[in-house]
Amino acid sequence: MMDCRLGCGACCIAPSISSPIPGMPNGKPAGERCIQLNNENLCRLFGKPERPKVCLQFKPCPVICGSTTQQALANITELEHLT
């Protein structure tokens, strides 16, 4: 386990999310920024009850997140393509 890198946002950009997100009732396609991601790449829903379950369940780890935002984007994008 690891802590999220503040300002990374890769998990809010790279994967598709099929569940509704406030402002995105049909979820979001892979590679599209979540509407809830602010200009500093921080989630506006973090800690709020309306945050989607899939987002709550994501746990950052070195294998997925790597050591940079670019690595996280590449790793999550690859996983998205494989699933």
TrEMBL record:
Database matches in InterPro entries: Puta_zinc/iron-chelating_dom, UPF0153_domain
The protein, known as: YkgJ family cysteine cluster protein
Source organism per UniProt: Vibrio caribbeanicus ATCC BAA-2122
